[in-house]
Write a structure and sequence with these properties.
The chain starts with 5 loop residues before the first helix and ends with a helix. With 209 residues, the protein is mainly alpha-helical. The model has no long low-confidence stretch (mean pLDDT 92). It has eleven helices and no strands. Helix 4 packs antiparallel against helix 5.
Length: 209
C-alpha cells in the first residue's frame, strides 16, 4: 500500500460500501484526509473526513468517540476555507460532546468557537467554556485544558469587564498551567495575561508566543 496514494485507496474502499469493509473504509478515508491536510488541501481533507463519517454511520454500533473526533477534525479543516460551513459543524461537535459529557472534545471545540481574545466569538462560546470546565474539574484524573478554559473565560465577557473577576480566573488558570504538559494550557494563559495586562514592558513575553 506504500506506493498507492491514500486518496486512491480511500476512493476504492468507499466505492465498495455498504458491502465492503466499513472499518477499512474509515481507516483509508482518514488516511486520505491526513495526506490532503499535509499538503494544505484543507477542503479535500474535510471532504475525506465527511466520507469517513458517512462510513462510520453505516456500522451497526458507531463509535461515539470516533464520531466526535472526526467531526472535530473536520471542523478544524473546514475553518481554514469556509466560515459558513464551519459554524454548523462546530456547533454539532459542541452538542454531541455536551450530550455525551466528553470534556476534552468539548474544550477543544470551545477553543475553536472563540480562539483568541478580542476577536468576535461564535454564539455559545462562553457556555461551551463553562460546560467544558465543569466536566474537567469534576474529573479526578486532573485532565489538561483546565487552565485553557479558565484563561479564555478570563478574557471573555462578562469577566473581562471586571478586573477582579478576570484576575481571579487568570490566577486559577496559572495555577493549573504550572502542572500541565498541554501546550494549549500554557499558551492560553500567556495570551490571557498579555491581553489583560500587556503593555510595552511585556514585549519580550509577546515575542515568545
Amino acid at each position: 500500500h506504500e506506493l498507492i496514494p491514500p486518496a486512491d485507496l480511500a476512493y476504492h474502499a468507499r466505492c465498495a460500501l455498504p458491502l465492503g469493509d466499513l472499518r477499512k473504509a474509515v481507516h483509508h478515508l482518514i488516511a486520505a484526509g491526513a495526506a490532503a491536510a499535509h499538503v494544505f488541501a484543507y477542503a479535500d481533507a474535510a471532504r475525506h473526513l465527511q466520507h469517513a463519517l458517512e462510513a462510520l454511520e453505516m456500522q451497526e454500533h458507531p463509535n461515539q468517540t470516533w464520531r466526535i473526533q472526526l467531526l472535530l477534525h473536520q471542523a478544524l479543516l473546514t475553518r481554514a476555507h469556509s466560515t459558513r460551513a464551519f459554524q454548523p459543524l462546530i456547533a454539532r461537535v459542541v452538542h454531541l460532546a455536551h450530550e455525551q459529557q466528553q470534556a476534552d472534545p468539548l474544550a477543544r471545540a470551545a477553543m475553536l468557537h472563540d480562539p483568541y481574545p478580542g476577536l468576535p466569538p461564535l454564539p455559545g462560546s462562553v457556555r461551551a467554556f463553562e460546560d467544558a470546565l465543569r466536566l474537567l474539574l469534576a474529573d479526578p484524573g486532573k485532565p489538561p485544558l483546565r487552565a485553557a478554559m479558565l484563561a479564555r473565560l478570563a478574557t471573555s465577557a462578562p469577566a473581562a469587564f471586571s478586573a477582579t473577576a478576570s484576575d481571579e480566573l487568570l490566577a486559577r488558570a496559572e495555577a493549573f498551567a504550572g502542572s500541565s504538559a498541554e501546550i494549549l494550557d500554557g499558551f492560553s494563559v500567556r495570551v490571557a495575561r498579555l491581553y489583560l495586562h500587556g503593555g510595552p514592558l511585556q514585549r519580550a513575553d509577546a515575542e515568545r508566543l
